[in-house]
Amino acid sequence: MSQAQNAVAQTGDHGLKKHEISVATVVFMIFCLVAAGCYGIEEMIPECGPGLTLIMLCVLPFVWGLPFGLVASELGSVRPQEGGYYKWVQEALGEFWGFQAGWWRTISIYIDNTSYVILAGGYAATVWDMGIAGEFALKFCMIAIFTIINIRGVRDVGWVSTVLSILVMVAFGIVALCGFLNWGGDAVPAFQITPEPAEGISDWFFYIAGGISIGMWMYSGYESMSTIAGEVSNPQVIPRGTLVTIPLIMAVYILPTTAGLGSLGQWDNWGTEPGTVGYADVVSHFWGPIWGIIFVIVAILAQCSIYNTYIASGSRGFFWRMIT
Question: Does the bond joining 274 to the residue before it have cis omega, within 30 degrees of 0?
């Protein structure tokens, strides 16, 4: 192979360097894009009830998450090209709808990504009195560090995502272990399906609607990895990784939530606001307050993992939108 042909093989059609990425790395990157822990499920529990929350966490993967992931896997396998979902829509529906898909998805990522920086600073402020200057410095460092990582390339993004994902999974695995070991400890009142007894279809609709939007959001994001396909030497690892990630995310959601509700209870007080109950309270209640601080660090790392991977996904989508 000539030097020119080798250069094209190593960089692709548009000059971006290609990297050897394993299926495991793709799994961890998609985990960051879709889940990065159970954060958010706390809002479902008092809204639609503990039993209905668990039912929805078990059902939604099959009626929403799995079809979503299979579509992304199928299209990623057949059309593993730069731009991902933007190019799929453009080829199928034309330039106008391709523009809409690419532009609005990219804008939504940039707007949404700021929330992860804010959340990381907010979590830190709950434990350490940093003041405005200290919180700003933390946010600035987070932006700078993960921007540099993304500039270095998708391989470094994948390596960082792997480390952060493993830490988050271990943390929620500890929640599940603690909860199951202390099953029934303070779970009063007993499990019930909905917050209040449903008296008709309208009540069921209200309870389901209260949690389904959060549940759908928790199982969304599988297509985001597709924009990076142009920088992967073997793009087929992306659909393979997607199929592995779906049951993994189900386990990360369902096991800690079941264990937490079955041990700590207080389902009507779960939430993300100060003073409410969350996953950190499960281990801090049974194993000591030090776990509360550990989980604040885990929460910050989870926000960093999401921010890191969505910079990669969002910037690539914007790049391909601009050059085509």
Answer: no
